[in-house]
Specification:
Elements (H helix, E strand, L loop, with lengths): L11 H9 L4 H7 L7 H7 L5 H13 L3 E2 L7 E2 L1 H4 L2 H11 L13 H11 L9 E7 L2 E8 L2 E6 L7 E5 L1 H9 L4 H7 L2 E5 L1 H15 L1
Helix pairs in contact: 7-8
Protein backbone atom coordinates (compact mmCIF):
# COMPACT_ATOMS: atom_id res chain seq x y z
CA UNK A 1 0.00 0.00 0.00
CA UNK A 2 1.25 3.54 -0.68
CA UNK A 3 2.52 5.34 2.39
CA UNK A 4 1.25 8.62 3.76
CA UNK A 5 3.95 9.25 6.35
CA UNK A 6 5.08 12.81 6.88
CA UNK A 7 7.78 14.53 8.88
CA UNK A 8 5.18 17.19 9.76
CA UNK A 9 7.95 19.74 9.36
CA UNK A 10 7.43 22.93 7.35
CA UNK A 11 11.06 23.11 6.19
CA UNK A 12 11.42 22.66 2.42
CA UNK A 13 13.87 19.80 2.97
CA UNK A 14 11.34 17.90 5.07
CA UNK A 15 8.53 18.59 2.61
CA UNK A 16 10.73 17.36 -0.25
CA UNK A 17 11.47 14.18 1.68
CA UNK A 18 7.75 13.71 2.25
CA UNK A 19 7.56 13.36 -1.55
CA UNK A 20 10.74 11.47 -2.51
CA UNK A 21 12.16 10.29 0.82
CA UNK A 22 10.61 6.83 0.83
CA UNK A 23 12.91 3.90 -0.01
CA UNK A 24 13.43 3.39 -3.75
CA UNK A 25 11.75 6.68 -4.73
CA UNK A 26 14.92 8.51 -5.76
CA UNK A 27 16.25 5.43 -7.51
CA UNK A 28 13.09 5.35 -9.61
CA UNK A 29 13.76 9.00 -10.47
CA UNK A 30 17.36 8.11 -11.35
CA UNK A 31 16.24 5.42 -13.76
CA UNK A 32 13.98 7.87 -15.61
CA UNK A 33 16.56 10.61 -16.06
CA UNK A 34 17.78 9.40 -19.46
CA UNK A 35 14.67 7.82 -20.98
CA UNK A 36 11.09 6.82 -20.18
CA UNK A 37 10.72 3.22 -19.05
CA UNK A 38 8.03 0.60 -18.71
CA UNK A 39 7.27 -1.03 -15.38
CA UNK A 40 9.09 -4.21 -16.47
CA UNK A 41 12.18 -2.19 -17.43
CA UNK A 42 12.23 -0.43 -14.07
CA UNK A 43 11.81 -3.77 -12.34
CA UNK A 44 14.81 -5.14 -14.25
CA UNK A 45 16.93 -2.08 -13.43
CA UNK A 46 16.02 -2.28 -9.73
CA UNK A 47 16.17 -6.01 -8.91
CA UNK A 48 16.16 -5.40 -5.17
CA UNK A 49 12.64 -3.97 -5.09
CA UNK A 50 9.52 -6.13 -5.16
CA UNK A 51 6.89 -5.60 -7.83
CA UNK A 52 4.34 -4.49 -5.23
CA UNK A 53 6.67 -1.96 -3.63
CA UNK A 54 7.72 -0.58 -7.00
CA UNK A 55 4.07 -0.17 -7.96
CA UNK A 56 3.44 1.68 -4.69
CA UNK A 57 6.38 4.04 -5.26
CA UNK A 58 5.30 4.80 -8.80
CA UNK A 59 1.75 5.46 -7.65
CA UNK A 60 2.99 7.83 -4.94
CA UNK A 61 5.29 9.65 -7.35
CA UNK A 62 2.42 10.02 -9.80
CA UNK A 63 0.19 11.42 -7.07
CA UNK A 64 2.85 13.96 -6.16
CA UNK A 65 3.34 15.03 -9.78
CA UNK A 66 6.89 13.65 -10.07
CA UNK A 67 6.21 11.00 -12.73
CA UNK A 68 3.46 10.43 -15.25
CA UNK A 69 2.56 8.11 -18.12
CA UNK A 70 1.77 10.36 -21.08
CA UNK A 71 1.40 7.40 -23.46
CA UNK A 72 -0.31 5.14 -20.93
CA UNK A 73 2.57 2.66 -20.86
CA UNK A 74 5.96 4.16 -20.11
CA UNK A 75 6.72 6.15 -17.01
CA UNK A 76 8.45 9.48 -17.49
CA UNK A 77 9.45 12.40 -15.32
CA UNK A 78 7.23 15.45 -15.28
CA UNK A 79 8.77 18.91 -15.49
CA UNK A 80 8.67 18.97 -11.69
CA UNK A 81 10.32 15.56 -11.53
CA UNK A 82 12.99 16.66 -14.01
CA UNK A 83 14.05 19.36 -11.57
CA UNK A 84 15.35 16.58 -9.32
CA UNK A 85 18.11 15.73 -11.83
CA UNK A 86 20.87 17.95 -10.39
CA UNK A 87 19.97 16.74 -6.90
CA UNK A 88 20.19 13.06 -7.88
CA UNK A 89 23.42 13.60 -9.81
CA UNK A 90 24.99 15.52 -6.90
CA UNK A 91 23.90 12.78 -4.49
CA UNK A 92 25.57 10.20 -6.74
CA UNK A 93 28.81 12.19 -6.79
CA UNK A 94 28.68 12.52 -3.01
CA UNK A 95 28.13 8.78 -2.62
CA UNK A 96 31.12 7.71 -4.71
CA UNK A 97 33.33 7.68 -1.60
CA UNK A 98 30.82 5.69 0.47
CA UNK A 99 31.52 1.98 1.11
CA UNK A 100 30.36 -0.46 -1.55
CA UNK A 101 27.48 -2.77 -0.61
CA UNK A 102 28.11 -6.44 0.03
CA UNK A 103 27.93 -8.74 -2.99
CA UNK A 104 25.85 -9.57 -4.85
CA UNK A 105 25.07 -5.95 -5.72
CA UNK A 106 23.31 -4.57 -8.76
CA UNK A 107 24.35 -1.70 -11.02
CA UNK A 108 21.98 -0.33 -13.63
CA UNK A 109 22.89 0.91 -17.09
CA UNK A 110 21.39 4.31 -16.29
CA UNK A 111 23.62 4.66 -13.23
CA UNK A 112 26.80 4.01 -15.22
CA UNK A 113 25.72 6.27 -18.08
CA UNK A 114 24.95 9.12 -15.70
CA UNK A 115 28.44 8.73 -14.24
CA UNK A 116 29.91 8.70 -17.75
CA UNK A 117 27.98 11.80 -18.78
CA UNK A 118 28.93 13.67 -15.63
CA UNK A 119 32.62 12.82 -15.51
CA UNK A 120 33.77 12.42 -19.11
CA UNK A 121 35.81 15.28 -20.53
CA UNK A 122 36.74 14.27 -24.09
CA UNK A 123 39.79 15.81 -25.71
CA UNK A 124 38.46 18.92 -27.51
CA UNK A 125 41.21 18.57 -30.12
CA UNK A 126 40.18 15.02 -31.06
CA UNK A 127 37.90 14.43 -34.04
CA UNK A 128 34.22 13.83 -33.25
CA UNK A 129 33.11 10.24 -32.76
CA UNK A 130 29.78 8.48 -32.44
CA UNK A 131 29.66 5.24 -30.47
CA UNK A 132 26.90 2.72 -29.95
CA UNK A 133 26.72 1.18 -26.49
CA UNK A 134 24.71 -2.00 -25.99
CA UNK A 135 23.95 -2.45 -22.28
CA UNK A 136 21.48 -4.97 -20.91
CA UNK A 137 19.85 -5.41 -24.30
CA UNK A 138 19.28 -1.69 -24.88
CA UNK A 139 21.16 0.50 -27.36
CA UNK A 140 22.49 3.96 -26.53
CA UNK A 141 24.07 6.63 -28.68
CA UNK A 142 27.17 8.34 -27.28
CA UNK A 143 28.66 11.28 -29.14
CA UNK A 144 32.03 12.87 -28.42
CA UNK A 145 32.63 16.26 -29.97
CA UNK A 146 34.26 19.57 -29.10
CA UNK A 147 35.19 18.39 -25.63
CA UNK A 148 31.62 17.37 -24.79
CA UNK A 149 29.73 14.11 -24.44
CA UNK A 150 26.09 13.48 -25.31
CA UNK A 151 24.14 10.35 -24.42
CA UNK A 152 20.78 9.49 -25.94
CA UNK A 153 18.60 6.37 -25.89
CA UNK A 154 18.44 4.37 -29.09
CA UNK A 155 20.97 3.36 -31.71
CA UNK A 156 22.65 5.95 -33.93
CA UNK A 157 22.01 5.96 -37.70
CA UNK A 158 25.74 5.42 -38.15
CA UNK A 159 28.49 4.77 -35.63
CA UNK A 160 32.27 4.80 -35.68
CA UNK A 161 32.31 1.92 -33.20
CA UNK A 162 30.04 -0.22 -31.05
CA UNK A 163 30.70 -1.66 -27.61
CA UNK A 164 28.54 -4.45 -26.19
CA UNK A 165 28.98 -5.12 -22.50
CA UNK A 166 27.18 -5.06 -19.16
CA UNK A 167 26.95 -2.15 -16.69
CA UNK A 168 29.40 -3.67 -14.21
CA UNK A 169 32.04 -4.26 -16.86
CA UNK A 170 31.57 -0.78 -18.31
CA UNK A 171 32.02 0.69 -14.84
CA UNK A 172 35.28 -1.22 -14.46
CA UNK A 173 36.46 -0.12 -17.90
CA UNK A 174 35.78 3.52 -17.07
CA UNK A 175 37.97 3.12 -13.99
CA UNK A 176 40.72 1.27 -15.85
CA UNK A 177 40.53 1.31 -19.67
CA UNK A 178 43.65 -0.88 -19.87
CA UNK A 179 41.45 -3.88 -18.96
CA UNK A 180 39.48 -3.63 -22.23
CA UNK A 181 41.49 -6.33 -24.00
CA UNK A 182 41.03 -8.72 -21.08
CA UNK A 183 37.28 -8.03 -21.01
CA UNK A 184 37.04 -8.79 -24.73
CA UNK A 185 39.01 -11.99 -24.23
CA UNK A 186 36.63 -13.08 -21.45
CA UNK A 187 33.63 -12.29 -23.61
CA UNK A 188 32.25 -9.67 -21.20
CA UNK A 189 32.87 -6.97 -23.82
CA UNK A 190 32.88 -6.94 -27.61
CA UNK A 191 33.88 -4.18 -30.02
CA UNK A 192 32.85 -3.61 -33.62
CA UNK A 193 34.43 -0.84 -35.66
CA UNK A 194 37.06 1.69 -34.67
CA UNK A 195 38.71 0.51 -31.45
CA UNK A 196 40.34 3.93 -31.07
CA UNK A 197 36.93 5.58 -30.71
CA UNK A 198 36.06 3.27 -27.80
CA UNK A 199 39.46 3.93 -26.23
CA UNK A 200 38.82 7.68 -26.44
CA UNK A 201 35.43 7.22 -24.83
CA UNK A 202 36.83 5.25 -21.89
CA UNK A 203 39.83 7.53 -21.41
CA UNK A 204 37.57 10.60 -21.37
CA UNK A 205 36.81 9.69 -17.75
CA UNK A 206 40.14 8.41 -16.44
CA UNK A 207 42.17 11.17 -18.09
CA UNK A 208 39.87 13.70 -16.43
CA UNK A 209 40.20 12.18 -12.95
CA UNK A 210 43.88 11.24 -13.06
Amino acid sequence: MPTSRSYRDSCGVARALDVVGERWALLVVRELLLTPQRFSELRHALPGVSSNLLADRLRELEQHGVVHRPDGGRYDLTDRGRRLEPIVVALGDWGIDAPHPAEPASLSATSVLLFLRGHARPDPAAPPATCRLDLDGRAWTVRLHEGRIEIEPGEPPTADAALRTDPGTLSSLLQDPSTLAAACARGTAAIVGDRAAIDRLLHAVTDNTA
